[in-house]
Amino acid sequence: MNCHEFPLAECVDGTLSPADERAADRHLEGCPACRALVADLRTVRAAAFTLDRRQPPADLLNRIQSRLTSEPAPRGRLLAWPNTRGAWSVWLAAAAALVLATLIGVMPLSRSAVDTTETEPAPALDGTALVDSVEADLQAAEAHYDRAIQGLEQIARTDSGELDPQVAAVLQKNLQVVDQAIDESRAALKTQPASSRAQDGLFEAMRTKVALLQQTVELINEMRKGNQAEAGRLMQNLSR
Amino acid sequence: MASSKPSGDLRGADLDLAARIKSGETGAFESLYGQHAGRLYNLVSRMAGSSADADDLLQDVFLLAYRKIGSYRGDASLGTWLYRLAMNHCLDVLRSRQARMGQVTESMDEPDAVPVATPAPTLTTVNRIDLERAIESLPPACRAAFLLHDVEGFGHNEVGDILGVSEGTSKSQVHKARLRIRAHLGSRA
User: Fold this and answer.
1) Which CATH number fits domain A1-64: 3.30.70, 3.30.390, 1.20.120, 1.10.10?
2) Is there a contact between A109 and A138 (Cβ–Cβ < 8 Å)?
3) What's the rounded Cα separation, in Å, for the pair B86 and B40?
4) Which residues of chain B are within 8 Å of residue A5 when distances are taken between CB atoms?
5) Which of A171-175, A205-209, B1-5, B55-59 has the highest mean pLDDT?
6) Smallest Cβ distance to B175: which of A9, A36, A73?
7) What mean pLDDT is predicted for residues A52-57?
8) The pLDDT of residue B159 is above 70
9) In angstroms, what separates the C-alpha of B126 from chain A's closest C-alpha?
10) Where are the domains of chain B?
């Protein structure tokens, strides 16, 4: 056995078979470098095992428990559950409305995205027509988003199973961030109507908003199916 | 040492505790905390590098455990399940911190790049403060395997189970960590 063949890690861990251990010992007898290395690594291992045991601060459990008071029960409701047949129908209607609004909202964006990649030359538009076209698409999409959001908020207010406040707050915050990005992109597009970069930025922000709404719809659907694990995963995504 | 595959009695006890937490029984969550917080804190505080971060990390781990307790099926012991949550969370936090700082993060399964074992250091005694600093200087995945195996005393199969890697990867990460620590301590001697 030479130094390259020497089973260093196993020797330090003491997991060699008796036969391998005898062979390792024979090598160590004639190799001061490996002997020193094994001794050092065993010293590291022993020192690590005797490191101080650290203890959490005494009040940490209380801090965690106070956070838990604002948590939904683990297998309970991430969103409050509708408890009547009527309430279910309202939730399902909300989900359906959001799906529809999202799909309609995506259409003009998809069309615009396709326009930029078509190999056939598109009919030439002058600058004003281009801005008008983009504006019209965006206004249509915005109107659908707004209606969907308003519908969801209205349902949350009127139905007893309103959105969990934490979820609603996070969703609201995320939507505000996306809305801000949309506003900024729109402002950039106004100053540079022909800028493909400004258009891409705007469409990207809109697509993010679509994705956010789609996740909300998915969450509602998973809650309806009683799939807590998937609903929890979606909740985490929405909370980011 | 927590076993990764619980025996019948242990599995029953773990499943019972998980069910009691799910049902909101008074004292059940405190029981989970009492059983595991000390050891988990020992681990996350050395992963985090500072006690303030460790408090936050342990808090996050128990909040995550509370939220996910419904997904516990008793396939592993509750301790192993908690360690898995804890290490995943610690590694996520450390990697995102590194990413923000523009550092390259290493993968658990990266091709083995064991440091060359030079004959230089000969460690007769190890200063604990130096050892703590050497552990802090390890890359996160390497540090995780070392802490679980050499500090907490888990076997390589359990380390692999907790970190989601093979036993061989655990062995190689721990070995790599020891060599790095030796080099670190040797440079301070």
Assistant:
1) 1.10.10
2) no
3) 8
4) none
5) B55-59
6) A9
7) 90
8) yes
9) 7
10) 8-100, 128-188
The candidate with the shortest Cα–Cα distance to A185, out of A229, A235, A138, A230, is A138
What residues of B are in contact with residue A53 (Cβ under 8 Å)? 38, 42
pLDDT number for residue A217: 61
Calculate ∠ Cα A202-A239-B109, nearest 5°: 95
What is the interface pTM, i.e. ipTM, of the complex?
Answer: 0.83
Sorted by where each begins, the domain ranges of chain A are 1-64, 85-239
pLDDT digits (tens, 9 = 90+) for B71-104: 888 888 899 999 999 999 998 888 887 777 765 5
Nearest to B174 by CA among A49, A146, A217, A216: A49
CB within 8 Å: B121 and A40: yes
Chain A residues lying within 8 Å of B56, measured CB to CB: none
What's the rounded Cα separation, in Å, for the pair B143 and B94?
Answer: 11
State which CATH number among 3.30.70.260, 1.10.1740.10, 3.40.50.2000, 1.20.810.10 fits the domain covering B8-100. 1.10.1740.10
Furthest-apart CA atoms within chain A: distance in Å: 88
For chain B, how many residues are written?
A: 189
Buried b / exposed e over A64-83, threshold 16 CB at 10 Å, is beeebeeebebeeebbbebe
If you average pLDDT over each of A104-118, B5-19, B47-61, B98-112, which comes out highest? B47-61
Closest listed residue to residue B82, CA positions, set B28, B35, B143: B35
pLDDT score at A221:
60
Residue type at position A94 = A
B-chain residues within 8 Å CB-CB of A40? Answer: 121-123, 182, 186
Tokens of B31: 């029981």
What pLDDT is attached to residue A202? Answer: 73
pLDDT surpasses 50 at A80: no
- The shortest CB-CB distance from A41 to any of B45, B70, B182 is to B182
Q: Given this structure, which CATH class describes domain B128-188?
A: mainly alpha
Asked whether A79 and A167 are in contact (CB, 8 A), the reply is: yes
Nearest by CB to A68, from B22, B66, B126: name it. B66
Rounded to an integer, what distance in angstroms lies between the CA atom of residue B81 and that of residue A142? Answer: 45
